[in-house]
Amino acid sequence: MSVQVEKLEKNMAKLTIEVSAEKLEEAIQQAYLKNRNRIQIPGFRKGKVPRKMIEQMYGKEFFYEDAANALIPEAYEKAVDECEETIVSSPRIDVTQIEAGMPFIFTAEVALKPAVTLGKYKGVEVAKADTSVTDEDVEADLNRQRENNSRMVTVERPVEDGDIAVIDFEGFVDGNAFEGGKGENYSLGIGSHSFVDNFEEQLIGKNTGDEVDVNVTFPENYQAKELAGKPALFKVSIKEVKEKQLPDLDDEFASEVSDFDTLAEYREDIRKKLAEKKEQDAKNAKEDAAVAAVVADAQMEIPDAMVETQQRQMVDDFAQRLQMQGMNLEMYCQYTGQSPENMLESVKPEALKRIQSRLVLEAVAAAENIQASEEDYENEVNRMAESYKMEADKVKEIMGEKGKKQIMDDLAVSRAADFIRENAVEV
Fold it and tell me: Which one of 149, 180, 398, 406 is separated from 345 by 20 to 30 angstroms, measured CA to CA?
């Protein structure tokens, strides 16, 4: 196998990859063996038709596509290793020669890692974040805990904003009930605006047992086109009224939701944790702002193919997370009204930002000779092993040398980000 590299404009390159005629012949023969049981010719038993007979009837090219698909992945991977270029995109493959008895030749158009010219990366100025914790912050956190530990209690009084009204309802348009407009024992949060128009407000002041006519108008852009813009009447029966009751803010509450016996101790713990969180948030914000400033002052020409590859990776990662939740990408697109193409376009700005940040951090690591040590690598492997409930040696085996290099590079990039942050000036 041989590979030739032709540099193109905008950090693109074309690899011309040649595979020997012998390898092509082997691939064609394998394609014949794989497909012969599916080919029937009168006078021959199934799976016994000679290859030459098939090629005479259907043309010599009959097995070429399968042969090419078998050869390209391995040949391309070897070419990438041999060409000594850092390729940062998926290849665009074009077969230029495939004929029995001749070398198999194809091209792969790829993006190459762009060079980065750093501007200022030491002492960049960033805004200083406020990390103080106020009494209002502490009380807000306490109230969130009270909300989380609230309970709904049935009350004998008119409906108020913030209540839960348990209702039966049926909707009518032009005097006719419409599909999806009926429900029983529905718990409606008053003030949640989960129902159309001012539906919930019309229940305020009503009592358990009341029958209420609720008049609403569907919005012009309502998802059910047959209802869009139309007035509707809902017949509503109020079956129960519930109010949210918050626990008292006292020592008993503190002992139930924390490891502390008194509310005073719990408050101090909340203040401490809020301070820690604000410090970490400020640290992250400082790093993000500093790296963004370094990126803005750097020069690089990023090929479109590199961005497109990052976009596809981000959408693929999102699809995997959806699968873990029992949903696939197609279902998600149906629910949200998006298309895969729209999703790709929507992640483009973030894809570009990730690429720029990574390239700049790698350039800073190189400029400052920032490297990860073997100890850093071992610590990271142990962390991964603990996370995945695996033996460290097994993690190493799965990753191999390429995986190790990726981890070492990632650690160096992380340290470069630390370097930029630590040298940034807060103003």
Answer: 406
Give φ, ψ of 330 to 5 degrees: -65, -45
Closest CA to 96 of 64, 134, 132, 59: 64
Query: What Cα–Cα distance (Å) separates residue 137 from each residue in 254, 258, 267, 371?
Result: 17, 18, 11, 41
Average pLDDT over residues 380-395: 92
How far CA 323 is from CA of 64, 75, 327, 331, 337, in Å, comes to 36, 32, 5, 10, 19
Dig out the tokens for 110 from the structure: 């790829």
Q: How far is CA 147 from the centre of its chain?
A: 31
> Percent of the chain, pLDDT > 70?
100
pLDDT (tens digit per residue) in 269-283: 999 999 999 999 999
> What order do you get walking across the sheet with 12-19 strand by strand?
2-7, 12-19, 104-111, 92-97
pTM: 0.76
Spell out the SS3 assignment of the chain. Answer: CEEEEEECCCCEEEEEEEECHHHHHHHHHHHHHHHHHHCCCCCCCCCCCCHHHHHHHHCHHHHHHHHHHHHHHHHHHHHHHHHCCCECCCCEEEEEECCCCCCEEEEEEEEECCCCECCCCCCCEECCCCCCCCHHHHHHHHHHHHHHCCEEEECCCCCCCCCEEEEEEEEEECCEEEEEEEEEEEEEECCCCCCCCCCHHHHCCCCCCCEEEEEEECCCCCCCCCCCCCEEEEEEEEEEEEEEECCCCCHHHHHHHCCCCCHHHHHHHHHHHHHHHHHHHHHHHHHHHHHHHHHHCCECCCCHHHHHHHHHHHHHHHHHHHHHCCCCHHHHHHHHCCCHHHHHHHCHHHHHHHHHHHHHHHHHHHHCCCCCCHHHHHHHHHHHHHHHCCCHHHHHHHHHHHHHHHHHHHHHHHHHHHHHHHHCEEC
